Amino acid sequence: MAIVSFMPLIFLCFLVNLVTHAAAERQYQNCVTERGNFTANATYMANLDALLDNLTANTQIDYGFYNLSYGQNPEKVSVIGLCRGDLNPDVCRSCLNNSRVFLPQFCPNYKEAIAFYENCMLRYSNRSIFGVVEDTPWYYYWWPGNNVTNVDQYNQVLFKLLPELQSKAASGDNRLKYAAGSATVTDSLRIYALVQCTPDLSEQLCIDCLGVAFSEISSCCNSVAGVTIGRPSCNVRYGTNPFYEAIPDTPKGNSKLRTVIAIVASVVAFIIVIVLVFIYLRVKMARKYIEVWRKWNEGTALDIVDSTLSGASTNEIMRCIHIGLLCVQKDVANRPTMASVMLMLNSNSATLPKPSEPAFVLQGRTFTGTQLLERNSGLVETAINNVQASVNEASNTELYPR
Ligand SMILES: *[C@@H]1O[C@H](CO)[C@@H](O)[C@H](O)[C@H]1NC(C)=O
Ligand SMILES: *[C@@H]1O[C@H](CO)[C@@H](O)[C@H](O)[C@H]1NC(C)=O
Ligand SMILES: *[C@@H]1O[C@H](CO)[C@@H](O)[C@H](O)[C@H]1NC(C)=O
Ligand SMILES: *[C@@H]1O[C@H](CO)[C@@H](O)[C@H](O)[C@H]1NC(C)=O
Ligand SMILES: *[C@@H]1O[C@H](CO)[C@@H](O)[C@H](O)[C@H]1NC(C)=O
Ligand SMILES: *[C@@H]1O[C@H](CO)[C@@H](O)[C@H](O)[C@H]1NC(C)=O
Ligand SMILES: *[C@@H]1O[C@H](CO)[C@@H](O)[C@H](O)[C@H]1NC(C)=O
């Protein structure tokens, strides 16, 4: 009879739990009765409100740990807010904000209370709570319907991974004591785990706190694949799916530096391409002039004339080519002035000097066309190699700012 009347209540409890958990990712909360109550409108309440407002308004703290006190004894309030170590400050603040609204409402007039969410933990008390391991209240949470088939094999990997993360987290600084990592159980099974202490703990106290949490796993949750153990001073979570954000080992500045390098590389590549096009045109021109000059010397200059011009006077065409060749002489003094070009074009009788090999100016030095061709084929090859090398370097090199 008693059992039957309890059934709907248990079911309701289960439903409410499920709904609130899904809505707020809140996993556990506790109003600590032993620490006593305060009366409504008391100084303690005003201090608590001011402190929690101050905490949620704080935008300077970006490492997910808040330890603040406010008021005078015996009405002094201390608060600790801790976010999961892989979360960005906005997600962290939003979780603490939810918690700040929820907890004083859930535990009205309680001097001490604690709420665990998936992303954060918030606790306050009239005691001094910084730098000490708090053992109660603690909770565990496991995801149902996810039991391990080979428990021994799973535990072997799990209890090798957890101590590694424990010492890594404990060695963190006074802003972050957090470690996450994974290990292989079988080809198709991997354990992902995360451990964290409130960073006000010493290294040894962090190791101690996590050690107790690990021992709780065996008593509460043996054979369960995914578990969370929450304690006021530390927590452990593991499962078979990756649930944490990998914090990159390389500093954040790296990607910025890479972007700058990539931009510089493309600007340099662009400039080199422009130079190459310029050189290419020069070389093409030089080749043309040299061809003309050779043919002119051989007396076959007419070969290069476009067939549509074949109606024009041979004499005139030869004269134009001759004048053109004179305009690209190596020695500037040998090049005709504009006035003499006009004269040469207008008068068929003026005798023209014999042109030597055409020449070009490159980088302030003059080269004959043949020299230019030789020089530039090497130059172009070197330039192409350089562009290729610098582009490869920019895309392959891992950069570590000092
Ligand atoms: C906290 O409040 C409780 C209940 O009022 C009281 O017994 C205890 O002494 C207080 N602790 C401190 C450190 O003031
Ligand atoms: C504290 O207040 C809560 C509810 O406001 C009440 O249930 C509880 O009995 C009170 N505890 C003490 C010690 O007065
Ligand atoms: C507490 O203060 C509010 C307004 O600040 C007031 O309305 C309320 O009556 C007060 N309650 C007590 C018990 O003094
Ligand atoms: C929080 O409180 C401290 C003093 O305890 C004060 O210096 C600071 O300005 C406050 N910050 C905000 C955002 O209220
Ligand atoms: C905190 O929550 C309150 C109400 O829930 C909201 O008005 C406020 O904008 C939130 N603040 C931040 C910083 O998210
Ligand atoms: C709060 O935490 C910071 C960083 O861990 C620490 O430097 C500071 O001393 C702590 N403040 C208190 C009141 O414990
Ligand atoms: C899964 O493991 C838990 C904890 O050991 C146990 O209570 C539960 O009965 C197991 N479920 C199944 C389906 O084996």
From TrEMBL:
It comes from the Eukaryota. This is Uncharacterized protein. It comes from Bauhinia variegata (Purple orchid tree).
